């Protein structure tokens, strides 16, 4: 038999819910003041258990018992963070000092030459070839090949010039677009409701975009590892494999995600890779006021806490317990989540401050400018870190972008024209 976990200390029932979200796209960001909004698609996961007079004990798929650790908890087995490089952060040459030098780490001459070559090839084909009617043209996915090359090239450069810290966040970034494409996504709860989704792995402490995974519907999901797992789980595993492949020998990372990705199978798979995991889970239950509940199965902690709404979080790193934050006692797992989950949001904040994006009906143009923006943001973050290490004061983001634009265009713009009669006093 199987049963749900109940709390006997209150009149309200407490039931474990796990988000069935492999096909659901509703994933609001979480903040300390506003918890997870209940998703309509949630299901109860029955946990096999044996009865006990002291506590309710349930079992997961690997037959490990769930124990109530609300009052007292022992730390789980933790992997030491091992990095094969002496200094984390920027991996650049000492001659890289100017804003344009940092930008060209990503937008290299090789990439620009490739762009020019493809533009000229496209122009020649347009001029020389007779245009066929739409009915006589066979459409294929070849149009994605150039965009894939462009984003893959930037992805490799992002990983080449930076080694992330222990704490890493995984989230999505939406490139605003409302045209007709098969991989267009819609989320009414996001500021950018329509667009092309980009899955992003970012350093939680700096906001550096370390790796990207564009979403092209089935073209993306078919290439992900572990087809036996939900797509949301496979996305995180794919990005983590990129992380480990780029940093062989590194272990002990701590990954933070939101409720769209969080699941027990994901936490268990990451533990096999010596990676810790923390994330919020969607919940839908009654709960008593100002109450906290935590249960543990092996290295995995499941914690529920209510302030204004209910927050359910899962972690293979944290222990149960609370700490005071602004006169409110919050669980350690929630405090750490709020501290390290904002890496991708920080990068998006930089990108939207002085963005290059313009209204366009071409989806590939949107992705091009998104990659250009991500390169600019990463270049500025590297510049700030290097200047700080050298005890120098870095310029602000606006001046950094302006200097890049000035240097890139100084050989291709005309000087300002002087109107009227020339001055007789100039010598």
Number of helices: 10
What overall form do the CA principal axes indicate? globular
N-to-C series of helices and strands: EEEEEEEHHHEEEEEHHEHEEEEEEHHHH
For the secondary structure, the number of strands is: 19
* Relative helix content: 25-40%
Note poorly predicted spans: 1-61, 284-290
Question: How would you characterize the overall build of this protein?
Answer:
With 427 residues, the chain is of the alpha+beta class. The chain has a domain at 89-108 and 143-409. 31% of the residues lie in helices and 21% in strands. It is built from ten helices and 19 strands. The strands form four sheets. Strands 1, 4, 5, 6, 9, 10, 11, 12, 13, 14, 15, 16 and 17 form a 13-stranded mixed β-sheet that branches. It has a two-stranded antiparallel sheet with strand order 2-3. Strand 10 and strand 11 (194-203) form a beta hairpin. Helix 3 (143-160) packs parallel to helix 9 (363-389) and helix 5 (231-246) packs parallel to helix 6 (264-272). The chain is globular. The N and C termini lie far apart (99 Å). InterPro entries: PGBD (IPR029526). Residues 58-69 have a biased composition (Basic and acidic residues). It holds the Pfam family DDE_Tnp_1_7. Residues 151-380 form the PiggyBac transposable element-derived protein domain. This is Transposase IS4.
